[in-house]
Amino acid sequence: MKNLIGANVREARKKTNPKISQIDLLARLEIRGVSMDCTSISKIESYRRPVSDIELVAIADALNVSILWLLGVE
Prior knowledge:
This protein is mainly α. It has a single domain, classed as 434 Repressor (Amino-terminal Domain), CATH 1.10.260. It is 55% helix and 0% strand. It is built from 5 helices and no strands. The longest helix is centred in the last third of the chain and has 11 residues, at 53-63. The radius of gyration is 11 Å and the shape is globular.
């Protein structure tokens, strides 16, 4: 396992209405100055890619959830 947030990223994407696709999340991250390739979200969600602190903050903001929630603390 290379990160702590994989399952929560997937859950947050699917709970929104309308659901956020992996491509939509990549676009939201790009707007926030974080560039990833098209397989990155899938790799994060399957715990195969580490996540930097900058990416963590951007992912939480893009999904409108807290960092602590993504980390499974709250």
